[in-house]
Amino acid sequence: MAGSSVSGGGGGRPPLFATEKPKRVLAYRLYAGTIFAGILLIWFYRATHIPARGSSSLGWRAGLGLLVAELWFGLYWVLTLSVRWNPVRRATFKDRLSERYDDDQLPGVDIFVCTADPALEPPMLVISTVLSVMAYDYPPEKLNIYLSDDAGSAVTFYALHEASEFAKHWIPFCKNYKVEPRSPAAYFAKGATPHDACSPQEFLRMKELYKDLTDRMNSVVHSGKIPEVPECNHRGFSEWNETITSGDHPSVVQILIDRNKRKAVDVDGNALPKLVYMAREKRPQEQHHFKAGSLNALIRVSSVISNSLVILNVDCDMYSNNSESIRDALCFFLDEEQGQDIGFVQYPQNFDNVVHNDSYGNPINVVNEVNRKII
Ligand SMILES: O=c1ccn([C@@H]2O[C@H](COP(=O)(O)OP(=O)(O)O[C@H]3O[C@H](CO)[C@@H](O)[C@H](O)[C@H]3O)[C@@H](O)[C@H]2O)c(=O)[nH]1
Ligand SMILES: [Mn+2]
């Protein structure tokens, strides 16, 4: 373990996580200090080079705009300097968690995925995120996945229904071959090759199933019509009629995978996580409070259906890129000494839906590789 560590634990047991000082604090301080010095120099330059009164009004306005931007950036840097100055790292001990808790002793986890607009957030992307969280390395009997669809879209419901079937193949594939990331869209987009012990035939079979699903979804998204095939006889589809719009619809709650039903197993015969579709009621005259409103409704609905101790929330465009995230979070929540003081664990976001050549620097590599590593 690097540097000095302030740890959790308790009752003579080793802690489930440690808070460590990273080794290269001086390098980080130098990095933070040079940027701060640069900011001071810019402010000094601005203070000593105020455009003369007589200069063009465009020059004045541009100068003022730059000054405001630089002041804001500088202020932001100063506010966040505190964490850069005294950086810490958190390390979890998932092996100790597994030693201390059998699968049936682990707490239930309710996972909330939010979506709001099938045009901006394509259903294929939404279900890839749902599949990534269904495939967490966690006992499926303890997992309950809720998709909140603020648009109340039949196409999104159809997509989730398709995902509930695809999951029967995808989850065992991920678990048997330790696939990462577990979002099929991200996995196949990265030009994945067969994993250890996964025969090329098995890999190609999965890829083919995924392609079939994508083709089916594309044609439904394109036509906007749900196919009239026996698979779509789920009673949930009867909730929709011509009067329903994204901004004006009644509430819909449908349990698509229910552990109490015998068919809720994957192709290997293992249990599947519970899967729930939810669209809260929306009316044009009533404020819906965006994502916060949907989380509120999710808490109410999940408290009746599964009421788990732990809640995990992801946006529909933020798939899970680490199948052990739940176990990581539990190391904080279940630590005997410090767990009681921890109510919230946040993971950093990584972006990979970037434009060609990443002109906008969206993957925020510096933040992830330098700043966040040490927070
Ligand atoms: O009426 C709404 C509007 C949005 N959302 C969902 O809220 C999430 C975030 O919305 P988005 O438009 O994608 O915002 P971003 O700027 O991409 O998200 C960042 O900023 C949001 C708040 O500003 C945070 O809630 C997000 O977690 C964070 O990733 C998405 O899953 C949406 O589907 C709803 O559920 N209902
Ligand atoms: Mn988003």
UniProtKB/TrEMBL annotation:
Binding site for Mn(2+): 291, 315
Source organism superkingdom: Eukaryota
GO terms under biological process: cell wall organization; cellulose biosynthetic process; plant-type cell wall organization or biogenesis
Coiled coil: none
Protein's UniProt keywords contain Glycosyltransferase: yes
Binding site for UDP-alpha-D-glucose: 121, 150
Protein localization: Golgi apparatus membrane
GO cellular component term, pick one: Golgi membrane
Main location: Golgi
Keyword presence, Iron: no
UniProt GO molecular function: cellulose synthase (UDP-forming) activity
Function field: Thought to be a Golgi-localized beta-glycan synthase that polymerize the backbones of noncellulosic polysaccharides (hemicelluloses) of plant cell wall.
PANTHER family: X-BOX TRANSCRIPTION FACTOR-RELATED (PTHR13301)
Family membership noted in the UniProt record: Belongs to the glycosyltransferase 2 family. Plant cellulose synthase-like E subfamily.
Record-given protein name: Cellulose synthase-like protein E6
Source organism per UniProt: Aegilops tauschii subsp. strangulata (Goatgrass)
